[in-house]
Amino acid sequence: MSTPSIQPGRDPAVQYLLRLGDFCLIHAQRLGEWCGHAPILEEDIALTNLALDLIGQARALLTRAGQVGHARGAPAAFDEDQLAFLREERDYLNPTLVELPRGDFAFTVLRNAAVATWMRLMWTRLQTSSDAELAAIAAKALKESRYHEQHAADWVVRLGDGTPESHRRLQDALDRLWRYTPELFEADAVDEAAAACGLGPRWADLREDWHAAMQALLDEAGVRVPTLGAYVTTGRRGVHSEHMGRLLAEMQHLQRAYPGGAW
């Protein structure tokens, strides 16, 4: 027996919150895959703790999305577990960047740096959100993201300035990852609605500060930023890579196999 999928609706405020919540949730899922596999014990524990921070942020955001959706006419106030585990692939609105396979350690720490820098900028702006609950979530999450960013940045520099092998791996990771970053700054009607009502900034508003921070980090690490093409990924609109379905199959298995299970 499988449990039916839920559809949280298409209200712009709900979509804005789901994008942020799914960003944290799917990134946490990929980070959690490092448990027991990191190159040293300290990083095994550190990466797991980063994933737990992100799950906490996702829970808060998904809970708020369910509350806002219900207040605006959704048939039910979906909780964080329902939104995390019972949607179909096209109803997840995370950027494609975070659903990519975990890759090697260089790919992971570089992705962590890119995401944590973006999150720090977003949480900083969301502290003045017109939604008091979202502003409170941002104030707590900002402290975590600052640590995530520093942890990842230290490793990026360490790998870039390390051995020829570590430098090569970091450059390879950057070449693979960078093409997915334009989606982090794509503007659309959801963002415009959020900005208009004061809920949060347009994602495009983060572009300049993010690029400046990342360029400084990559310069310190001694790696070259690749040239971008015209292609922009579409995970924020629910159109995902081939990796997303496999990720969800694992992440949703328990809830789908045992509907309504509690422990």
TrEMBL record:
Name of one Pfam family that matches: PaaA_PaaC
GO cellular component term of the entry, any: cytosol
GO terms (BP aspect): phenylacetate catabolic process
NCBIfam families reported in the protein's UniProt record: PA_CoA_Oxy3
Protein name from the UniProt record: Phenylacetate-CoA oxygenase subunit PaaI
Taxonomic lineage: Bacteria, Pseudomonadati, Pseudomonadota, Betaproteobacteria, Burkholderiales
